[in-house]
Amino acid sequence: MKAIVHIGTEKTGTTSIQKFLYQNRRKLRSHGYHFVQSPGKMNNQALPAICIRDEKMDDFFRNLGIETIEQRDAYRRHFTAEFEAELAGLPDAVHTVLISSEHFHSRIRTEGEMDNVHAFLSRYFDDIKIVCYLREQGVTCSSYYSTSLKSGGPSSFGDFMLRCTPSNYYFNYLDMLANWERCFGFDALDVSLFGRQHFERGDLLEDFAKKINPALVGNLNTAIQVENESLSPAGQAIMRAVNMVYPGRTARAEVAPIREKCRKLIYDKLRGSGQRLPLTNHLQIFDSFRESNEELRRKFFPDVETIFEEPTEASSVDTRLPEDFVDVQMAVLNVLRKDGRGIVTTEEIAQFLSALGRSIDEIVNPDESGQDGAREVALTRQDARILKRAAQGYEKRNPEMAYLLLRLSEKADGTIPGIHHKLEQYERERQRPTKAQYFIRSFVDFNSPDWNPDDLTVESLYAWYSSFREQIVGAMINRLDDTQRHGPIAQVNGFDIGQDGFTIIEADSREEAEEIAARCPLLQVGGSVEVSCLSLLTPGMQSAVE
Predict the structure, then answer these.
(1) Residue 107: inside a domain
(2) SS3 218
(3) For labelling, which of 55, 95, 208, 424 has a CA lying 20 to 30 Å from the CA of 6?
(4) Global pTM?
(5) 275 near 360, Cβ under 8 Å?
(6) For 347-371, what is each residue's pLDDT tens digit?
(7) Beta bridge mates, 533
């Protein structure tokens, strides 16, 4: 039996090809071709996964909860049995099996892993054809950035592009194809250039049909709809901020559903063409591959003058901020706060906001952030308005984020009314010394002889809070309702708590915080007020309970 194995490479329409094969599987079967299903209905990624070396963790296994070598071995046995059962059930009229996964390109990187692929396939097929499309390395890498973010990668675009070098097997097509040639032979390799000008009838799917059988050209359904899998620069910024706090490979297991919900929110609203290389950086990458690409041309495309056109201008990309930009930020923050209650810490939420600010800044100000691989984004007047509105939304909860967004708004269009005045205000506030924060908590003992509810009014409490409202950090007043205590402590400060509330303030001194607490109306009706200085508990600090 024959096998046609489509190995990618990644970012060369692999999803379209796989949907094309799946959608046409019945018609293909009538011509003697079977698109294998046991390794995955569209992306047959289980097959390359079982061939990677044991010590290398793969997303495929991680998503299945497979962590040990013993579990991998068990999965390999189970998969092999299913694969063999599928082949055994094929009718005699089927003479060729079709296999497709770009993970053959991205995951199979060593000679040992390639030996595993060859050993597995050669058990069942006596004629194996390897199909591969190639795309210029700089474009491939920039296109792959959104995929990396989707998988939990925390790198900036500039840092990510640093991996695009001839020493990286993933991008060095000459080395990659040499590994396949070593096991399957040169004649087994069907290598093509990715580009409409190279495709049969200018269509990738017709071109792939021709590789299966020229008689199939024009006889299969090529009306395939594939959603854009890339994120816009704004989407990349927010997704990266999530990943910076919860990287895909190291985040706590309980955070995974929350991170996935954030990812779906971002991909639903902020898809589009992502960041692209500036011309200077693109040319540097192009030049670094000249030698290996020329050898590749001589070996596989001797009749072509050049396999990849030298870039002459920066790739165009729509860098306008969508109206949904602010809403998506807030929606992600909502998920972290609500769905993450009891899982996501307040420190992690603060880290997300800080990471989002840095991520946006690295896109819009690549030179200032040190990421010379990022493309400077051209913002419009409408973008400036969106950024200003975002700054207003963060003004109370995260002044630093508000300042950063407003600074970007000014860069986009400094003529927006009020923007300079507000930015100056932010800058003055940033220059002020950071004040200490104090936690003020109030208690009422209903059993106290001084307790008289008629002597306490909501108005008097609010008048007290209003007297220092400019110093309050966050909400003006916080009630603690439905409190459940665990452990032996039944009393606080010597009396039973009847009701309590708290607030956090900034003050120049402990004395100022004490003076504010001393004016609390609860003290007149048998209540108590507690003042604590807030300090960050860091590793190495002796615990107060020791």
Answers:
(1) yes
(2) coil
(3) 55
(4) 0.70
(5) no
(6) 888 888 888 877 877 766 655 444 4
(7) 438
